[in-house]
Each structure stands twice: as C-alpha cells, then as structure tokens.
Amino acid sequence: MIPPRPASGGRAPDDKTLPAPDPAPDSTQLQLVRSYGPGRFLIGDREWRQPVLVTPTATLAWNVTRADELTLQSLAALKAAPIPTELLVLGCGARAIFVPPDLRAALKEAGLALEVVDTGSACRIYNVLLAENRRVAAALVPL
C-alpha cells in the first residue's frame, strides 16, 4: 500500500485545519494551534513532530511519548511561564485516558485544573480558551 501524499500546501489529507479567531492574532505573539494531523502540529508558524506543551507565549517540546506519562515533573516548564496557567488541557492522542485521582489532586494542589480529552478536542478547546484570554496551556500528544 502506498501512503497518501501530502495535499497542496504540504498537508496530508487527514490533517485538520482549525479556524482562526477573528481578528486573527499575530502568530509571533500568541501560540495558536493552526492544524494537527498524524504525528504533527502546526503551532504559530512552526511545525512540531513530537509531544508539546503549549502556552499563550511559547511552545516547548514535551518530554513524554504517551499521555499516561503525565507527571508534575513533566509539567515543570509551566511553572516558569510568564503567565501562570490555571487550566491544563491534556490531549491524549486518539482518545482520552484515565488520570489517577492522586495525580489530579496533585495538579489541583499546584493550582492547575485539568481537562482530559482526545488531541483534536484539546487543540480546539485550547484555541477557544486562548481567544477568551483565559490562562490556559495544552499538553498535546500527536495522533
């Protein structure tokens, strides 16, 4: 079987392009998830092919391979963010996972509410909350 070729513009046919808020923010100022697809994200003007932590002002490589590797230590970069994060949207890949109650409690104690969803939903939720000027971050595992 021959894998599908990327469509015009370099996107694979199963990539999902997300609508931009109106007016569209300056991609050099805000980290908006522009599209996602198997093994990739387009955030701002940069393509990522690995799990990422996305905040309003920066996107960083996230040193996990699966969402169930989530720990407080793996989210340490959020503490260094210039804007404190109130809500973390966890994109788990193709489907959401169960986050143990003790980890949820530790995140809550650290001041982070947690929303656990599939990666596509996480990208959309993050963008909506960002457009509402909420203090949100996303931890995203590629599809």
Description:
This protein is α+β, with helices and mostly antiparallel strands and 143 residues long. It has a domain of 91 residues: Hypothetical Protein Mth938, Chain: A, CATH 3.40.1230.10. 18% of the residues lie in helices and 24% in strands. It contains three helices and nine strands. The strands form two sheets. It has a five-stranded mixed beta sheet with strand order 6-5-9-7-8, with helices on both faces. Helix 2 links the parallel strand 7 and strand 8. The longest helix has 13 residues. The radius of gyration is 15 Å and the shape is globular. The N terminus is likely disordered.
Please provide a brief summary of the model.
This protein has 143 residues and is α+β, with helices and mostly antiparallel strands. Helices cover 18% and strands 24% of the residues.
* Sheet having the most strands: 5 strands, mixed
| Rg, Cα atoms, Å | 15 Å
Mean pLDDT level: 87
Query: Order of strands in the sheet with the most strands?
Result: 6-5-9-7-8
CATH names the topology of the domain at 50-140 as Hypothetical Protein Mth938, Chain: A
Task: Outline the low-pLDDT stretches.
Answer: 1-9
Number of helical runs?
A: 3
Number of strands: 9
Helix/strand class: alpha+beta
What share of residues are in beta strands? Answer: 15-25%
Level-2 CATH architecture of the domain at 50-140: 3-Layer(aba) Sandwich
Write out the CATH superfamily name of the domain at 50-140.
MTH938-like
Q: Quick one: overall form?
A: globular
**How far apart, in Å, are the first and last alpha carbons?**
21 Å
| Share of helical residues | 10-25%
| The CATH top-level class label of the domain at 50-140 | Alpha Beta
